[in-house]
Amino acid sequence: MNPYFSASAFFAGISRRAFLWRGILVGLLGLLMALNPLITLELLSILLGWVFAAVGVWAILSGAVYAGQRFFWIVYGLLMLLGGVFMIFQPFQVVFVIAWFIAIWFIAGGAAGIWNTAQMPVEGKYKVLPTISSFVGLFIGFLFLVWPLTSLAGMLWIAGLILIIRGAMLIAFSRILPEQPRMEENETGKTDTGSRD
């Protein structure tokens, strides 16, 4: 197999080498996220900005070439391009907007959960857990609203720890997984798994 086109073997292969490299990459990503979540937030915003900008340019060029709905695609591409440029040069403002969206989502979900729990036609003991869950959602939303950057950094820190653990597990799997027999091609083009008894 050509090593330059073996993405399937790397990302989904069941071999010692695939597990080892996946574990190393996942662990390094988790380490970066856990050690410096603010830099990770900035890098993610800039990376997404470049992706949006590239997609915007592609949409503009496609609109210029393709006759159908040309105006729509050019406007769509321009909006994507402008959004991407904003994410590249103003990454922390984008992070604040994302945090506030998360805050609104948690607050709205918590308020709706409290309202729905109060309307449930069941005994009070069955309303305790949904009520606590709704208040936890309100509290998380409040944290994201008041301390957006710190809250997102905390989320990334927890995600980084989880990725470090997952990377260590993948590396451990690479050590205990039995070595697969090499598939070699013989002269007839058929695969051979080794010597025949």
Task: Give an overview in words.
The structure is a single chain. By secondary structure, this protein is an all-alpha fold. Helix content is 77%, strand content 2%. A two-stranded antiparallel ribbon has the order 1-2. Helix 3 packs antiparallel against helix 4. It is extended and about 65 Å long. 19% of the residues are buried.
Q: Which range does the strand content fall in?
A: under 5%
Global structural class:
mainly alpha
Question: Strand order within the widest sheet?
Answer: 1-2
Order of helices and strands: HHHHHHHEE
Spans with pLDDT under 50 lasting ≥5 residues?
1-6, 183-189, 191-197
Distance between the termini: 27 Å
How would you summarize this macromolecular structure in one to three sentences?
By secondary structure, the chain is mainly alpha-helical. The chain has helices at residues 7-12, 16-35, 37-65, 70-89, 91-119, 128-146, 148-176; strands at 184-185, 191-192. It has a two-stranded antiparallel ribbon.
Write the layout of secondary structure elements.
Elements: H1 7-12, H2 16-35, H3 37-65, H4 70-89, H5 91-119, H6 128-146, H7 148-176, E1 184-185, E2 191-192
Helix pairs in contact: 2-3, 2-7, 3-4, 3-5, 3-7, 4-5, 5-6, 5-7, 6-7
Keywords:
2% strand; mainly alpha; disordered C terminus; 197 residues; 2 strands
